[in-house]
Amino acid sequence: MTHHEIAVGDRLIGPGHEPFVIAEMSGNHGGDLERALDIVRAAGEAGAHALKIQTYTADTITLDVDTPAFRLSADHPLWPNRRLHELYEEAHTPWEWHEPIFALASELGMVPFSAAFDPTAVDFLVGLGVPMLKSASSEITDLPLVRAIAGTGLPTIISTGTATLAEIDAAVRTARATGNEDLVVLACTASYPAPPEASNLRGIPVLRDGLDVAVGLSDHTLGIGASVAAVALGACVIEKHITLSRADGAVDSDFSLEPDEFASLVSETKIAWQALGEARIGPKSAEREGLRFRRSLFVTRDVRAGEKVGPDNVRSVRPADGLPPADVDIVFGRTFTQDVPAGTPLSWDLV
């Protein structure tokens, strides 16, 4: 393996493997464990390779303070003027739910993991035996937290919404300084939902080549188009929110995929990866039959020896058994050396 190929459970992440698609539950459980488990089932049925949640409490991620700094903007498209503490209290996944959620995800063949938002979450998740951890976008400048996450030795995903290249580089260097090379950096636009024109997917190969890491996309746009395009630009991990229904009013449902859409995400990103092929031009093995039906020169009617070869008895048609069409100017005006029935491919021994 190289550092671009990362083992997570029985799966390999890297350019040589189909995209690793992560279903992000976030707060779409709506505070109901049974709904959370239904989302896990839906993700499994949709073909997700991993099921991700978020590990924090309102008190570990912010303060219970009501000042303008601790409120979202009044013009926020989803959560206008909401107090941070109140929003995170609604959206968080209770820690006692983690074990049943992870157990069901594992049973359904998915990799269960979470984003850790403080050192107590790191310890808690390691205690649950998760095979992978994530550092969220807003935590990328919290280098002590990045160090704690990567320092577990587990494969580590670093999301990069809002970050400059210098900040991303600092986080990657911090993670690598722990000796952990199993890193995936996700391009991300931390806007909910994210407009497609703000996705800047051309930055994906910049991250891959500049940081020498496996790369992916944490996609908050509507639909699956951005994710499919990201695969064409080198993304080997796709993370997308999933909900049972966007109409249910959960905190992240407006920019989440419903189960049938998530199934399309899995299948279409795989097709995009398969379609990349190799950096070469030429006939493909799948075109063998097509090669047989290129055009060539054929005798179009019965002719007698001694007749002149011309447009009334030789023409470029399919299939490709005769002389190439480019030879028409060479053969026209010559004579047939023998009787030739219609439908015979023209060859040099006939003229």
From TrEMBL:
Q: Which InterPro entries match?
A: AFP_Neu5c_C_sf, Aldolase_TIM, PseI-like, PseI/NeuA/B-like_N, Pseudaminic_synth_PseI, SAF, SAF_AFP_Neu5Ac, SAF_PseI/NeuA/NeuB
The question of whether Transcription is a record keyword is answered with no
Gene Ontology molecular-function annotations: N-acylneuraminate-9-phosphate synthase activity
Establish whether keyword Ion transport is in the entry.
no
User: Which E.C. number(s) belong to this protein?
Assistant: 2.5.1.97
Listed CDD domains: SAF_NeuB_like (cd11615)
Q: Keywords assigned by UniProt?
A: Transferase
Q: Which Pfam families match?
A: NeuB, SAF
User: What is the protein's name according to its record?
Assistant: Pseudaminic acid synthase
Kindly list the organism's lineage. Bacteria, Bacillati, Actinomycetota, Actinomycetes, Propionibacteriales
